[in-house]
Amino acid sequence: MCETSLNSTVEIPDDLLENYSFVSSNSPHVTRRGGVGLFYKNNLPLKVRSDLAFDESLVVELKFGCKKIFYTVIYRSPSTHCGSPEFDTFVTNFKNLNSNLKKENPYSIFY
Asked: If exposure means fewest CB atoms within 10 Å of the residue's CB, which of 26, 59, 82, 86 is most exposed?
């Protein structure tokens, strides 16, 4: 999982890495900045949880038996300063995400 700086004009070939898939959450802006992506091995019991994510974040669930593990990667622009409306929105989104993940009764959560 990492920052990607992709937008809708960039295509990632399905066969870029053998036996791996790619999923991304690009910046909502047209320019290529921010956003996050994940390459994952196809045989992992992984589910992308778009229902829990917000702009420029990815939440994935790995399920091993009855144990759910959540991995989340989030991008926040370094130009978003504490106290700005954008920062406040980010903090609210992060708090909501954390609350919603806890409701899933996970074994572990990683950010």
From this structure: 82
